[in-house]
Amino acid sequence: MDTVALGNRLRRELDQRTRLLKEGGDLASQLNVHLIGVSRGDIEHLERVHTLLYKEFEDQGIEVYRRALRQLEGNEKELSAIVSAVDSVLRDWCQSLIDHAQQCVETVARFSSNPPSFDETSGKFSHTVSALLDDLRADAEEWFVKGESMKPQDPPPQRTSPPIPSWFPKAGFASAAVAFFFIITLVIMETLGKQVPSTARILVDLAVAIAIACAFAFIGGAAKAEGKIPILKGYEPIRFATEGGIAVFVIVLGLCVAVYR
Question: In which domain, by residue range, is 80 found?
Answer without folding.
Answer: 3-149
